[in-house]
What we know:
Elements: H1 14-23, H2 25-39, H3 43-58, H4 67-92, H5 102-121, H6 124-135, H7 140-146, H8 154-169
Helix pairs in contact: 1-3, 2-3, 3-4, 5-8, 6-8
Amino acid sequence: MDAKTPDIQPDTTGLHVAEMLANDRERQQVLFRHAFLRFQFSNEEIQELLQETLVELMQVGRPVTNPEGLVRRIFHVRCLRLLARKKSRAEVSPLEDEPPNPMNLSRRIHDHLLVRQGFARISRLCRDILISHYIHGTSMRETAERVERAYSGISKLISRCLRRLRECLEP
């Protein structure tokens, strides 16, 4: 996917970018090679990732100023999420043969409750920032847009919010 290609113009909609990607086998092949060579995903997994990317592109409501970058970023984030899911399944599968350890379960529940309580104690802005950036995987620029803050200060704001959450989690 070359940034100089004429068929996807800047300031277009996400739906238009999705249509162009759906009809452009060459662009799909570039993404396919990326997922196959970097992550070693199967053909089926890559096809699923492409479909998810198209769906997410169609949901972009604002004008897209860098269509090529957006396609790459969405697809790459989808690849990372699939890789994380596969790793978590691989970590869990050996444990399935053993009976559940009540101490581990108890600890996980305790940790989960602590994090929920910590999120309840921090401001709504901090909650929105941390969830957007770390849970939904948005970039700092997108996080700044979502919370209507300046991009130049979002890194410091994320650090401040993390510090506040850590303070809430300390005994």
